[in-house]
Amino acid sequence: MDLQSVASLTGLIIGALCGLVPLAVAIRKRTLRPGILGFVACLFSGFACNVLGGLPMIVLAVAVVISYTYTDKDDPFLSRARLEDVDFEETFGAMVTRRLASLGRTTRGASRALVRNKAGFLGFLGLVFFFVLTVFGPMLIPYDGKPHYYDRRREGAISLFQGPSAEFPLGLDWQGRDILSHIVHGGRSLILTAVQAGVLTTIIAVILGALSALLGGLLDRALTMLANFILTIPQFPLLVVLAGLISFQERFYLALLLAVLDWPSLMRAVRAQVLSLRERDYVEAAVVLDLGLPHIMLREVLPQMISYISINTIFSIQGAMYAIVGLVFLGMVPFTEPDWGVMIFMGRSQGALFSRDAASMLLSPVIAVALFQLSLVLFTRSLEEVFNPRLRAGL
Amino acid sequence: MEATSASPVAQAAPSRLVTWRRVAARVLTGYTGQTVLQGIVTIWAVMTFTFILIRQMPSNPVEIETERLVREQQLSYDEARSRAAALFEFDPDQPILEQYVAYLGKLIRLDLGKSITSTGTQVLDQILEYLPWTLFSVGLGLLISFTIGIFVGMAMAYWRGGLFDNLVTAFSSILFGIPNYIIALLIILILGVQLNVFNVASALGRVDPTIKPGFTTEYLGSVLSHALLPVVTYVSATVGGWILTMKSSTISTLGEEYVTVAHARGLPQRRVLTAYVGRNAMLPLVTRLAISIGFVVGGSVIIEDIYRYRGLGKFLTTAIVARDYTSMQGVFLVIAASVVVANTLADVLYGVLDPRVRMGKER
Fold this sequence. Notes:
The complex is a heterodimer of chains A (395) and B (363). By secondary structure, chain A is mainly α. Helix content of chain A is 72%, strand content 0%. In chain A, helix 4 crosses helix 14 and helix 7 (188-215) crosses helix 12. Chain A is flat and about 90 Å long. Chain B starts with a helix and ends with a helix. Chain B has 363 residues and is mainly alpha-helical. Chain B contains 17 helices and no strands. The longest helix of chain B is centred in the middle third of the chain and has 38 residues, at 217-254.
């Protein structure tokens, strides 16, 4: 996934085109309000991520629109038809509609659960803010990467640092560059790498944990031993050593490395959960019915763990960001400007720590990182509610 | 070990050999023996892993010193190289396997070898020089935040839903979310530079170098005041997690039947809270405390760097930058050993504190 081409005019057009689909469906179904909502959602996600954001949003928006008007005539529990009259053979179209409607209902329930927890919603808003900042921000504020040595220097000033002013809301850094533009442009690779690391961690941990619990035997013992081994090595010092060993010009390798060091704790939790879930009656019933491993894993076991796993993903993202900024902070990975971590490092090495004029150079990225981390932690509260079927059902 | 030391005796008295073997077998298969064996294997594995790893890093101590000499003293490369090679008792061209065998041979005699870059200094002496400072600052921080977490978390669970609970929950989530180095920077930037609460330049470091070391109030006061900033940072970075865990643990304990029974028996409120709720709610936290003690030794590399607090973490980064293989190796070994010991301690402690676990094991 590359966000290099984000928020372009093509994206806007793609988004608008995508938005027409839910709008058309809504007009046919005569429910305009969700249709307009779907149009706006498609417009934004298409704008932000081109086709990658637009197409999934079409499906989601259409699903929500359909769910407003959908009543399942063939559902033996909902319809009033007698059992003999119900036709259990459904056409492909009917099946797609039914699936979409159920997806739409889930989405609506989830978004309601998202709003319910105030702290969680605050975290969600924070994440949206950072998303907008890094994706749409560059359109408004171009990157100011050239050092301006003397043209902006104030009279009588010892350094090029400057505090906030009307022209430069966050002030100027040690080379006289606009700090605001660095904040806007400097979060993208950091957030992207952290998210990649978190997602990779989750994938590795879930797959290995499930395999370990289901297959057992030698593989189980080997994986558990490996996990315990990795847990024994202190992560951050090891990362510092590895940072000298591997070139991290390509940030994806850094994400991969973080994932390789971070999977064991989640893997052990997943393994324990699968082991205990395997004994539950409904899972045993599914096994007896011979529903197949994919069905059992995805439909019976995974929903029980999804809340825990997703919250862990968030914490992995948080941990990855901690590690990345920490490595940059110690000057252990190659720098790519603009980057919040590099700003902190440079601010510190250029003496911004002790100069009042320069406080903005350090404070801005520090607060950005802190707020992002805080939003992540708060967001987990909402995730708990979103993935809790009992809370979600209160439609 | 018993088996090998017994072998020369074997020819003389075969019956004794049998008893020795039996003892050795019992020790090795028993719970304690198993744990010790497993710990030793883990430490050895970490040692081997890091040994290979750190020698794969680009450049080596001689190379780095050579570059320094070329840069600073304008020597020719060959001259600088021979000088650097003469300075260190380290031959970078020696095969890694030979180095490994030599290191392992020394390690069995508990000899961590000599530092490469600080010629003539034993690594063990260096570690003993830096370790107490880290143990003191991180350990004190851990203890304080654990104690605060226990009491505040319990109080929150007891008055849950109230203003106190909501305020502290919000506050601890905020603290929990912010990385420790960010807190350290904020402390220096806002309290130190902007508000001038303390003098930044004199607060950094681990002790005022002008004061003579010794058990004088002046020296101890300086040690304490310099440890204040790191300790405050460690406490504020970890206390949120302890509070939240203790709160949820207490809430689930309050729902237990034995608490209801204790109330029904008319026991005084104080006794129910301390003996029935508090002790049981603390169980999961005590094991977590034991595990975190293992990570105390590693210290916080970044925090020590920010506050120029020369502890083991700072020592490690210095060793990494200078590619001082033996020093790095020593620090990793100490960290791995402490983590293994702490994990074992957590296991044992849980059995001691929770009779249910002990009974389960015996059955």
